[in-house]
Specification:
- The structure is a single chain.
- The protein is α+β, with helices and mostly antiparallel strands.
- About 40% of the residues lie in helices and about 15% in strands.
- It has one helix at about 25-44, and strands at about 15-20, 20-25.
- A hairpin with a 2-residue loop joins strand 1 (about 15-20) and strand 2.
- The longest helix has 18 residues, at about 25-44.
Length: about 45
């Protein structure tokens, strides 16, 4: 079997930010939050 492992210095979660005790992926969390807020406001 072939192994698909690459040698890299990237660590999972290295780009995350910690806020109020949560470990958040920076762009994903804020974009998703904004879309949810806009959707809720639009339905109201």
């Amino acid at each position: 079997m072939h192994s698909n492992r690459y040698s890299t210095d990237y660590e999972v979660g290295q780009d995350n930010i910690r806020m109020m005790g949560f470990d958040l992926h920076n762009p994903v969390f804020f974009i998703a939050s904004l879309l949810i807020i806009l959707f809720v406001l639009g339905t109201l």
